[in-house]
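Lesson 9: reading folded outputs for more than one chain in a single document. The general rule is that every protein is listed as its sequence immediately followed by its structure tokens, and records are never interleaved. Here is the first one.
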Amino acid sequence: MALPSPFELAATALQAPVETIRPDSGLNHHPKWDSMGHLEIMMALEEHYGIPITDATVRQFQTMTAIIAHYDSIKGP
């Protein structure tokens, strides 16, 4: 099963159109990416990318830049 792209993952978690998710989107920098939206994104990251939900990862993955960097490090060829 192919991994969803970071943009697809965030859009699905936030229930937002994928075209509204940009590389500079992040916590409190997207209309739906508030604290509850961030929790949805964290659960999606855990499910699809294997990122455990910890205090550290909650702080680390507050931006699309961080999510994209992690995706780039785990995706297959």
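And here is the second record, again sequence then tokens.
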Amino acid sequence: MALNKLSIYGNINIGVYVFTNNHLALVPPHIEDKHRKIIIETLNVEVHEVKVADSALIGILIAGNDNGILLPRIVRDEEYRHIKKLLDINVGILHSRFTALGNIILANNKVALVHPELENEAITVIKDVLGVEEVVKGTIAKLPVVGSVAVLNSKGCAIHPDASEEDIKMLEELFKVNVGVATVNFGVTFLRSGIIANDHGALVGEATTGPEMMRIQTILSV
């Protein structure tokens, strides 16, 4: 079972600190070696330490997929150069009024769902950097922060429990995956805050219950 519990800096909100795709995980500096090892073994990725805007909140500030990652306009020049040098994928800066890109973009390798008020100019950048065929504006459970209320891999998508049947149908058609509602960390509905997942496995915050873990594992097929 490639599903494990984790805390980072003693915090159960592990998703705010880590971005992952199927090949790499970007983490903030100075996480414990045992936690780094759990990330590597569970997600089958290389781990790189980075900062964005001098912040450890990598999971909130970065969005991406296997083709590329998007950094917010507040990234520092030296941080951008460091990340670009580290990674063998597209790295782009999204010049948008939104900076918490992980909260407003939900993407796989083919499609992205984004905040309904995202600027049209940003759509072109997302297509180019992430190499997706389509970028769609929308909401989940009437919430515009689609990246924070859902966790997606190529097998499934776990979403906010207030999502409607129409939401589920839309996401199934858009991403071509199994979609189901879930919670994490003993009832938290903003799933991305407590889950880090790719096609190889998933990590959940340490307050996550057994039934929640089973539900997440079933939806994401990890």
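What the second record shows: The chain has one domain: 3-220.
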